[in-house]
């Protein structure tokens, strides 16, 4: 579905990504791992057209480099940023409504789906989003993105700052999305979560991919973990 080749990205004169290459296939979870500053979030932003970049980002035969973020979203890629970006003065239901694509026509996801997946959001659907807990806000952001009916969802650090029980819930819900046919590019620091739910793992270092393989292969490679992942 997604084929990235020789991708470079920049913040002004700062060259951040250096020839990144990887694929995301239909119906799989790919974990993109690495330390802070390795280029993981910049990779997501480059795919979404949010930073200056060059190279090739091919999405189902269409080139994304040079497109605006809203164009990328309309082509079927959803993005859940690290800072969550909810609308705090709007209710949970109103936030979901803003994510809805094409008035819900033909969408695989409905309000009922969201509330069935996250019952806590149903309980708080008339509550302003700004008073939700961190875990609830993460669920809301994920659901709002799903309401746009993406085929691939890029989710950046979904477990950051969450309690262990909520982290487990997020992992469970990502696996449910895969079961519904959605592809997931998971940007994560928590190695255990990524290894438990991903089909393939990628490790970034200094703006490049330094490892690609199965979770089992990464578990069996202490040198890669020590050099690029462990603090």
Folded structure, characterized:
There is one protein chain. The chain is an alpha/beta fold. The protein has a domain at 1-76 and 152-157 and 183-231: Rossmann fold, CATH 3.40.50.300. It is 35% helix and 27% strand. It is built from ten helices and ten strands. The strands form two sheets. A six-stranded mixed sheet has the order 6-7-8-3-9-10, sandwiched between helices. Helix 3 (92-99) packs parallel to helix 6 (134-146). The model has no long low-confidence stretch (mean pLDDT 91).
Q: From N to C, what is the helix and strand string? A: EEEHEEHEHHHHEHEHEEHH
Adjacency order of strands in the biggest sheet: 6-7-8-3-9-10
Look at the helices and sheets and give the structural class: alpha/beta
Bin the strand percentage: 25-35%
Shape: globular
Instruction: Supply the CATH architecture of the domain at 1-76 and 152-157 and 183-231.
Output: 3-Layer(aba) Sandwich
How many distinct beta strands? Answer: 10
Bin the helical content. 25-40%
CATH topology of the domain at 1-76 and 152-157 and 183-231: Rossmann fold
Termini separation comes to 33 Å
Q: At the first level of CATH, what is the class of the domain at 1-76 and 152-157 and 183-231? A: Alpha Beta
Low-confidence stretches: none
Arithmetic mean of pLDDT = 91
**Count the helices. How many?**
10
CATH superfamily label of the domain at 1-76 and 152-157 and 183-231: P-loop containing nucleotide triphosphate hydrolases
How many strands, what sense, and barrel or not for the largest sheet?
6 strands, mixed
């Amino acid at each position: 579905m997604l084929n990235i080749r020789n991708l470079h990205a920049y913040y002004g004169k700062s060259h951040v990504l250096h020839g990144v290459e990887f694929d995301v296939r239909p119906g799989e979870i790919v974990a993109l791992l690495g330390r802070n500053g390795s280029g993981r979030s910049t990779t997501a932003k480059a795919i979404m057209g949010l930073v200056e970049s060059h190279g090739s980002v091919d999405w189902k035969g269409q080139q994304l480099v040079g497109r605006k973020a809203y164009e990328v979203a309309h082509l079927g890629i959803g993005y859940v940023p690290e800072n969550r970006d909810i609308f705090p003065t709007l209710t949970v239901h109103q936030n979901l409504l803003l994510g809805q694509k094409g008035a819900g026509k033909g969408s695989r996801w409905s309000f009922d789906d969201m509330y069935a997946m996250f019952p806590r959001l149903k309980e708080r659907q008339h509550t302003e989003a700004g008073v939700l807990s961190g875990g609830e806000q993460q669920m809301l952001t994920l659901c709002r993105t799903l309401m746009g009916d993406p085929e691939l969802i890029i989710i950046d650090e979904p477990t950051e700052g969450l309690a262990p029980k909520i982290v487990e819930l997020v992992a469970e819900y990502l696996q449910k999305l895969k079961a519904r046919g959605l592809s997931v590019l998971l940007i994560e620091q928590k190695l255990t979560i990524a290894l438990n739910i991903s089909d393939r793992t990628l490790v970034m270092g200094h703006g490049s991919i330094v490892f690609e393989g199965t979770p089992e292969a990464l578990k069996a490679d202490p040198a890669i973990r020590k050099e690029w992942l462990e603090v």
